[in-house]
Amino acid sequence: xxxxxxxxxxxxxxxxxxxxxxxxxxxxxxxxxxxxxxxxxxxxxxxxxxxxxxxxxxxxxxxxxxxxxxxxxxxxxxxxxxxxxxxxxxxxxxxxxxxxxxxxxxxxxxxxxxxxxxxxxxxxxxxxxxxxxxxxxxxxxxxxxxxxxxxxxxxxxxxxxxxxxxxxxxxxxxxxxxxxxxxxxxx
Length: 187
Fold this sequence. Notes:
The chain has 187 residues and is of the alpha/beta class. It contains seven helices and nine strands, in the order ββαβααβαβααββββα. The protein has helices at 18-28, 40-46, 48-59, 75-88, 99-111, 119-122, 178-182, and strands at 4-7, 11-14, 33-38, 62-67, 92-97, 134-138, 150-155, 160-165, 173-176. The mean pLDDT is 92.
């Protein structure tokens, strides 16, 4: 297997050691405060958590953590993430985990610029105009959330699961380190 960089709408760093090699460089492009959204079990079990924290320290950025995203993330979880991001004043989001965690990070990225419920976007009341940059680090090979322009969120009150599609929500960068992906067991 060979390392490579590839760029489409999302810049892709692929190969062994890419988190260590590129994460600090990528987050520094967007500011000094990072909101770290992650899927706790695979991220900590694989050692990715330690690599990410080390990269934040290397970049000299402050960070806040947000975890506990459920499968098919709930809009209430996204709203909680948005509130914590705003309170911290983050300038960039790093989302690490499976598709649901990456989708949650993307939904937080556009919800950060809205004063209401993130479900306002999903119900078609408003459209995405501005997003915060998202750096995605997938922990499993699945639907490609790390490069897609969609984010699926569920509303348990209305019993709806809706995918919002907008080019603006595509992550700015995806870091794919195969050993961190292939070692994960399906949950």
